[in-house]
Design brief:
The protein is mainly alpha-helical. It has nine helices and no strands. It is elongated and about 85 Å long.
Length: 225
């Protein structure tokens, strides 16, 4: 919740898309709908700036909405508001499947990099979690879960896109946005929580042993007169 800005962050992320689909279905005026959606996204950013709050969430939201709105405007087709999202989903399906095939599950790599960021000695960093079999298999399952999440979005939304059902497409996009992702994150955590906690305990035990060994060496070292 903190990462997405709490309830306010959810509203800010959903509102431009909600206004776009409702506005276009009601008015069929692409220019007006684009203008109102863009104005709402920018206003959310301006308010955060005036309140001196963190703006990364709002800024990324503005960027994402801008890409979608520009695409729809220049193509003169309201459906293309959703086209960048399809391309993003396809990219993540390919990236996560490749990561699973090469035995470096993408979600696992992401979680471990957040836990222990490193840009050097990557082989040791990879071994530190890939050799923990329960943790590795949990990361693999979760990576495939996210492949299914992105694939399901395409499976449901692409037919609506090609059949030009803007209202249903917009509704599906909203439902399968933040709420669907929140469910996937919760399921992911259920899969990795136990093996990850066990892995952390093992790391702590190793650090304690290293500290004890270093203390013994220091105690055994000869003292100069």
């Amino acid at each position: 919740m903190e990462a997405i800005g709490g309830v306010r962050g959810i509203i800010e992320s959903l509102l431009p898309g909600l206004v776009f689909v409702i506005g276009f279905v009601v008015t069929r005026n692409l220019g007006l709908t684009v203008a109102v959606s863009a104005t709402l996204a920018v206003l959310a950013l301006v308010v955060r700036l005036l309140q001196r709050q963190a703006i990364m969430g709002a800024l990324s939201g503005v960027a994402a909405v801008a890409i979608c709105l520009v695409w729809a405007w220049f193509s003169k087709d309201a459906r293309n508001y959703y086209l960048p999202g399809f391309l993003t989903n396809a990219f993540w399906i390919a990236a996560l499947l490749i990561s699973a095939v090469v035995r470096v599950p993408g979600i696992g790599a992401l979680v471990e990099f957040v836990r222990n960021p490193t840009l050097s000695d990557m082989s040791s960093w990879l071994r530190s979690w890939r050799e923990d079999k329960p943790l590795y298999h949990a990361y693999l399952k979760v990576t495939l879960l996210w492949v299914a999440v992105f694939a399901l979005r395409l499976l449901i939304q692409l037919p609506l896109y090609f059949s030009d059902q803007i209202g249903y497409l917009g509704t599906a996009r909203l439902v399968m946005g933040v709420p669907f992702f929140a469910l996937a994150i919760w399921l992911s955590w259920l899969c990795i929580a136990a093996p990850l906690h066990a892995h952390r305990r093992n790391e702590d035990s190793i650090e304690i042993l290293k500290t004890d060994n270093n203390d013994r060496r220091a105690d055994d070292a000869p003292v100069d007169d």
